[in-house]
Amino acid sequence: MLKKKLIAFGDSVMKGVYMEDVDREGKPHYVIAKNSFIDEFGRRLGCDVSNYGRFGSTVTAGQGVIDRHSKDVSNSNYVLLEYGGNDSDFDWESIAAAPGENHNPRTPMMLFAKAYRGIIDRIRDYGSNPIILSLPPLCSKRYFDHFTKNMDLQRKNNVLNWLGGSFETINSWHESYNLKLFELGFSLGIPVVDITSAFLACRDYSRYLCCDGIHPNEDGQRLIADTVCDYFCEHVGMFGLTTVS
Predict the structure, then answer these.
(1) What integer is the mean pLDDT of 82-87?
(2) How distant, in Å, are the alpha carbons of 107, 170, 178, 215 from that of 218?
(3) What's the pTM value of the predicted model, to 2 decimals?
(4) What pLDDT digit, counting tens, does each position of 15-46 carry?
(5) Could you tell me how far CA 136 lies from the centroid of its own chain?
(6) Mean per-residue pLDDT, 101-113
(7) How many Å apart are CA 200 and CA 138, to the nearest integer?
């Protein structure tokens, strides 16, 4: 008989963090959704879920988190993974200060792919089944306004010039990491739940994102919950799945 247990690792999206408002000094106020998508997933499918998502986490940081919870991984049918948003991000203050220099993302692409493969190997070694979640799209202009809100005009222009004069460069770079997830899933035989298309199918997906342009709001969390639940019911079948032997 199946245990119907799932464990989740990732960043703030997996954790269910969203931006509620800003304080008097303009600093964002982040909270954890009372009914995040992973909580809703467990409720709908009657599955015991442990969520180890962390605000600001990258895939390299996730390796240690997974190892610390190896026993939970071994006792789970499936492991949901959601990394890439923070990995693809840059130190925007450094770019604003020195736009003529070379700047790398927090996790360069080759390291990102290698670390993600390492996580998948770990999960399989621990006896569970990894499943990758793709990334929600960004609202580039909204995100640009968010991370440059405390910059003067010159520094904002420095960042924009570094981006080639287009806010959408942010989304394009983010999407390159997202495409890498699908590539990894295909090459390693790992299922990828397509969160991205669920957002893009909406007439205006920005209404599912917070004012920072990157975190799904409560409606966005529900959209992800619908997508993940539909995927499991159609492709995995929590009540008739085949686990790792």
Answers:
(1) 95
(2) 28, 23, 22, 10
(3) 0.89
(4) 888 776 655 555 667 777 777 888 888 888 88
(5) 7
(6) 95
(7) 10
Measure the CA–CA gap between 142 and 150, rounded to whole angstroms. Answer: 14
Would you call 80 exposed, middle or buried from its count of C-beta atoms within 10 A (0-12, 13-18, 19+)? Answer: buried
- Yes or no: say if 53 and 16 are a contact pair by the CB < 8 Å rule: yes
Biggest CA-to-CA distance, the chain: 63
Residue recorded with tokens 């639940």: 229
Query: Tokens 């004069």 label which residue?
Result: 165
Structure tokens at 139: 């609202």
Helix axes 109-125, 59-68, angle to 10 degrees: 20
Tell me: the pLDDT tens digits for 155-165?
Answer: 999 999 999 99
Closest by CA to 131, choosing from 84, 193, 72, 87, is 193
| Amino acid sitting at position 192 | V
What are the C-alpha distances in Å from 10 to residues 13, 14, 149, 207?
7, 5, 27, 23
Which regions of the chain does DSSP assign to beta strands (E)?
5-10, 17-22, 28-32, 48-51, 78-82, 129-133, 192-193
| DSSP code, position 151 | S
Look up tokens 């995995």; give the residue: 236
CB 113 within 8 A of CB 87: no
- Dihedral over Cα of 120, 124, 127, 133: its sign: positive
Ordered alpha helix ranges (H), 138-207: 140-147, 153-162, 168-188, 195-200
Cβ 92 vs Cβ 144: under 8 Å: no
